Amino acid sequence: MASAEVSNPYLPLLRSSSSAIFLLGAGISTSIGIPDFRSKDGLYASLKLEEYGLNAPEDLFDYEHFCASPAGFFKWSLDSLTLQTTGSKFHRFLSTLKNLHRIYTQNIDGLESSSGVPDSKIVHCHGSLQNSTCQTCNHKCPTPSFTGEVPLCPVPTSPLVVGPRTSSRGKKKQKLTCEGILKPDITFFGEPLQSVVSKTIGKDRLKSDLITVVGTSLKVEPFSKIVNCFEGKKVLVNRDYVGFPGEGRWDCVFLCDSDEVVEEEGTTWREVVKGVFLGRGGVWCEERYQKLLSKKKEKGQGQGQGQGAEPVVVETVTCDACMTKTGKPFYTCEICEGFDLCEGCVGKEEGGKRHRVEEGEDHRFRFCA
Ligand SMILES: [Zn+2]
Ligand SMILES: [Zn+2]
Ligand SMILES: [Zn+2]
């Protein structure tokens, strides 16, 4: 197919919208050094388990594990989290938009807000690091800066709780403050999702004419289902092509880094197939794209109509290198849908002979737990 070179085709689309919604993932913060979770170089893959007293990477955000031994989480926070307040170019762009209706973000870094987007326009689907809540008395406060220690609630206990003074002065140390654990307000596994998410979706459902999904592989539920909740044009901005979740299709796809899609000039865009534009930070493989499309058609026919948008949750896979069956955790190629590796095989020769990586392509493996 002949491909035409064009100047940034996303901005006119966005400007023609009267009410724009954004669904954001970790990809919008990687340009300023905040790692994503599940990619090959992401947080889970590089986590030193022993150092933080974890049995598995996902223990880090497991609510039960946290309550039982919070020290590991706060040690990790000191080593790995910065309460960064300067967002990426994309964050700053969002704060200037007049037609912004709402942002639904998976990110917990709070950068949408600190970059100037009004809080009323942001829905933190997985909570935010900015504030913490005492697990004992529910006291809410800004998250104390990470010191490596478990932060304890400073609320004074009432005189009634302190109890009568006894003669044995100094022998029993009275607790003068609550000393409950201050947990950052991010959603851990095993915690209910923020109810504000579905409430706001209910309000926004028919209000937007453009939904832009940015920097996310749309593999984490329930976030992946949100796209289908809205009316309006559906647009993907991501380094790699991601199939549309459930029924329906993308109206437009921009393969690039998120900072690039808001650049007025600087990138020459190529329309690789109709409606799919490739920028300089993007990855394109026509073969994989066709594969995804044909798979989708098969699925659609097999399931009949009206099946809704239930993503398939895969619990066991066959490792495509050693061909043994493996449960979670496993690793899946972000480009080749359905190409999976077990823990023993990931990192060895990029998945072996059966993994077809063309020259210049970047196939990262995502950690599935
Ligand atoms: Zn407290
Ligand atoms: Zn294997
Ligand atoms: Zn691959």
Automatic annotation (TrEMBL):
Zn(2+) binds at C134, C137, C153, C178. It comes from Triparma verrucosa. Transmembrane segments: none annotated. The keyword Hydrolase does not apply. GO terms for cellular component: nucleus. InterPro entries: DHS-like_NAD/FAD-binding_dom (IPR029035), NAD-dep_sirtuin_deacylases (IPR050134), Sirtuin (IPR003000), Sirtuin_cat_small_dom_sf (IPR026591), Ssirtuin_cat_dom (IPR026590), Znf_ZZ (IPR000433), Znf_ZZ_sf (IPR043145). GO terms for molecular function: histone deacetylase activity, NAD-dependent; NAD+ binding; zinc ion binding. This is Deacetylase sirtuin-type domain-containing protein. Its cofactor is Zn(2+). Residues 1-268 form the Deacetylase sirtuin-type domain. The active site is at H126. Keywords: Metal-binding, NAD, Transferase, Zinc, Zinc-finger. It comes from the Eukaryota. PROSITE patterns: SIRTUIN.
